[in-house]
Design goal:
By secondary structure, the chain is of the alpha/beta class. It contains 15 helices and 11 strands. It has 2 domains: about 150 residues, Glycogen Phosphorylase B (Rossmann fold, 3-Layer(aba) Sandwich), CATH 3.40.50.2000; about 190 residues, 3-Layer(aba) Sandwich (Rossmann fold), CATH 3.40.50. The longest helix is centred in the N-terminal third of the chain and has 17 residues.
Length: about 350
């Protein structure tokens, strides 16, 4: 039996996307034991995955302390893994790989970049462009397996979330007027969040034109900011702030009962896609859409990115340029106006929702 470790100590969406490694490596080694090494706040997206046998959860701030990192390295080495996958490919994960003693250490790296130390036995270049509709981030992770284990046939590119019978019976929203639309009013970070007045205008458009109940999604520490957006909205009677889940697993259970999601790119979008619910994604200007635009078809999953609407605003969109934009995305985010968003959102909503009678779309 092979002992396999996947290191993905990053955010929720990254962890869920990286679950495709477990789903596919089990095809190559059906009797293997697969362990994930992740931040503690992301564990919810891996729960009940039949292809993941164990989860090591760590605190992100604690792992950055050198003494704690050394303890982790010693534990991983003691556990004697045969294969390690490192899609995270940062300092901590590379050091874990380097001293792990694993015969197969498979990690991603930027093309043409030479690693300073032999972190990996099999360094895999990031793909230049996506060739599948799953998005490049997922394709890169599948490529980590197929490049080393070509016996992988018919890979499964779709991340999955498994619900328990109790979660399937969740009935908190059964009394709400359907359909129920979840809106991610804030991104996972401030740099991924739209201006408050912009998201309020999007909410107003929906409540004025469509028969639906609106729920807000945000991180627990963002509650006061979400309430500020709520105060900017006109039709508060159609927004239910009382229904909210403050955990990842809670959000998964709630979202499974909702009808669609509108949100900034992030973990909530990838969760919703894994639940086979429609999504409309608003990308922050510094995000490379090609990496994360999984399964977008213009109907079930649609999105908007400023680069596509106003390409003249970008001198270039290289890795280095995106980092510069990330440092201060506000100026470009202001240019992704509500009118621009609604231009793509209207057809999406018309496909999934019913407009109010005797009303013309504003």
């Amino acid at each position: 039996m092979k002992k396999i470790l996947v290191i993905q100590n990053k955010r929720i969406g990254d962890v869920l996307i990286s679950s495709v490694i477990a789903n596919n490596i089990k095809k190559v080694f059906p009797t293997s034991s697969v362990t994930y090494f992740v931040y503690d706040y992301t564990v919810g997206v891996l729960k009940n995955n039949p292809n993941i046998d164990h989860v090591i959860q760590v605190n992100d701030k604690e792992l950055k302390k050198v003494p704690n990192l050394i303890k982790v390295i010693r534990k991983i080495r003691k556990d004697k893994y045969d294969i390690i996958f490192d899609p995270y490919a940062k300092f901590q994960s590379r050091m874990i790989c380097l001293f792990s003693g694993a015969n197969y250490r498979i990690g991603l790296k930027r093309k043409h970049k030479k690693l300073k130390l032999p972190f990996y036995t099999h360094p895999i270049d990031l793909l230049d462009h996506k060739t599948q509709n799953c998005g490049k981030a997922i394709e890169d992770r599948i490529n980590m397996i197929s490049s080393v284990f070509p016996e992988l046939q018919h890979p499964d590119y779709e991340p999955k979330i498994s619900l328990t019978s109790t979660e399937k019976d969740y009935d908190t929203i059964k009394e709400l007027k359907r359909p129920v639309v979840m809106i991610g009013v804030l991104g996972s970070t401030a740099k991924k969040s739209m201006p408050y007045e912009y998201i309020a205008k999007v909410v107003d458009f929906m409540t004025h034109n469509y028969d639906a109940t609106i729920l807000f999604n945000y991180a627990p520490h963002q509650k006061s900011e979400a309430e500020k957006i709520y105060q900017l909205c006109k039709h508060k009677e159609l927004i239910d702030l009382s229904i909210y889940e403050d955990s990842i697993r809670g959000f998964i259970t709630l979202m499974a009962q909702c009808d669609l999601l509108i949100a900034n790119e992030g973990g909530s979008v990838h969760i919703t896609k894994a639940l086979h619910k429609p999504t409309f994604t608003i990308y922050s200007p510094y995000i490379n859409k090609e990496h994360w635009c999984s399964f977008e078809d213009g109907k079930t999953h649609e999105s908007i990115h400023l680069l596509e609407e106003k390409p003249d605003l970008f001198n270039s969109f290289t890795f280095e340029e995106r980092k510069k934009i990330e440092e201060n995305p506000d100026i470009l985010y202001q240019k992704l106006t509500p009118e621009m968003i609604l231009g793509k959102l209207k057809p999406f909503l018309n496909h999934h929702l019913t407009t109010k009678s005797n009303i013309e779309l504003e």
